[in-house]
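Notes on consecutive records. When two proteins share a document, each keeps its own sequence and its own token line. Never mix them. Below: protein one.
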Amino acid sequence: MTVPSNTEKIKAIYQLLFEMATGKLLFSIKEPVQTDDVYDILIKNLQTIAHELKTLVLEVGMVPPYYPYQNITQLLFILDSKHRLLNFNLEVVRLMKYSSVQLLNHSLEDFIDTRSQANWSAIQSELQNNDSFFTSLELVFLTQDQQIVPLYCSISRLIASDFILVTSISTSITPIENKPFGRLPLDNDEVETLQKLHDYILEHLDEPLPTLKELARMFGSEAHKLKVGFRAHYSSSVYHFYHEERLKKAHLLITQTSISLKEVAYLCGFTSYINFYKAFKKYYSYPPSRLSRPDSLR
């Protein structure tokens, strides 16, 4: 048997922490062999915490906030040749907690923490003189309320322009939601099965949803239990939840990407654009073509 390297163990630890943070409490790492190795001890402690957290969530009837596509936000800074903020998207305002007026025309350096000043200074001459300059590095930002925000940023010059583009991806965690079980008593095993089904649906929105009988076989349950239990735990039927999440994903893709509407329909599991169009218009009361798209994506 191959023994995992320390690098592999660290990757597994970060994966577990990320899954726990986004509410996917069913994720786990293979239990390590009993050793005094500091990595194995940490993995074992995290496994214990994850198990205890899952038990507490099940006991009080909470629904973990697992949204694989809604939690990701893009931050966009556009700088002039003197590295002053010419423009930025709304996520920058939300993250930095400054008003647009407080950000506009100020040097990016004004919002970078002292621990990243050297990194930023080191690339400024390259940004100034190299038309094809591109790099990725971590910059630590300081918000208006003095919170430290480390971001892994991509930094580049725009073609045929002196403008500089700084982009980053961040995650926002949705507060945990308390949804009572209602009249139907559910034990922990049943709720865990329902959470697995819930996560499966969110991870396969680009595919047709199997029948309840097929889902029951996949999760070792019964079709009636899944049908009644899902409605009791999530206040929605299996298929209504699947349908709503597909349309929410479509809305997000349309407003935040340059993907064509037909491709969006395909990525959200619709077999034809006309079916997608009708479903979207019925749900949102307006057609997908009416949505505004980011200026940079038009």
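Protein two starts on the next line and is unrelated to protein one.
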Amino acid sequence: MKLTGSCHCGAVHFSLDSDTPYPYQRCYCSICRKTQGGGGYAVNIGGDANTLKVRGGDAIAVYHAKLKRDDEQRVHASTGQRHFCRLCGSALWLFSPEWPDLVHPFASAIDTPLPAPPEYTHIMIDSKAPWVEVQAGKKDRRFRDYPKESLAEWHRRLGLSNGAD
């Protein structure tokens, strides 16, 4: 599926191909919650990094989240690159060098109508803000941290993918 997206002010427009376009996963971690400004969670989807085309790249800035492991005192920068519009602050996509073939656009930046998922996966629930109520349906899955099932595996399990990763 061809996806198009943009920031709020219109300075950045992008497109990419996705074999996993269902916005199924709601992440409640503090990074997603604080950089997205959503309902206490962020939703990202998968796309083919090799097909990413960007117009307005000079308006893009990159944020590397600050991470601190439970067993460490020092803070280090995440390798994940959270791209956002430096003019309006809209979160656009996440790219991680650990998975160079993937880019994860935030569903909130996608302008193409996305398909409604038959179920949601709620992740990082232990990190949610106290004011956030997890509104999960009967089929939805909940995880205290990250599930083992990948984005591509979720799509295949539900018969929503053409089999590509």
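For the record: Helices lie at 30-36, 151-157.
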